[in-house]
Write a structure and sequence with these properties.
31% of the residues lie in helices and 36% in strands. It has 158 residues and is α+β, with helices and mostly antiparallel strands. Strand 5 and strand 6 form a beta hairpin. It is elongated, with a radius of gyration of 25 Å.
Amino acid sequence: MTGWTVLIWLFCFFGAVFTANGIFLWVAIGSFPGTVVDSSYKAGQAFNSEVAAAREQASRGWQVNAHLERKAEGRAQIAINAEKADGSPVSGVSFEAKLMHPLATGQDQTISLVEGESGHYAALTPNAVAAGKWHLIIEAHGAEGRVFRSENTLFLTD
């Protein structure tokens, strides 16, 4: 075994290692959809106000039930039933649902729900909703701003 043979073996070995690392790096960067929050600092600054809003929401004692059902054409029907602590319907607020895919941000949908009967809100998603894992964020806004927020994870089947 000569010095040239050892040199060629070293170049081949490290060339294979660098090639594999380059492929892994390219796949990792290409498959990452983005960040969860744009600024961790700003999210941290908003934490105390979110805790206060959650306490205020809990003090209201609302019972909000959501139902999501996929239709034959792939779109989804979202229905919400909202009641106050005394059992009377929640009326006069605007409910909004955000259906967010955990990986593909291009599939996210925001739906403004329409109040039918008092306390019953419903809407159909504008686009088809694929089967799989989704995050459903429900918010209600009144005259004083956001009065309700709920985050749920759900799994839709075909």
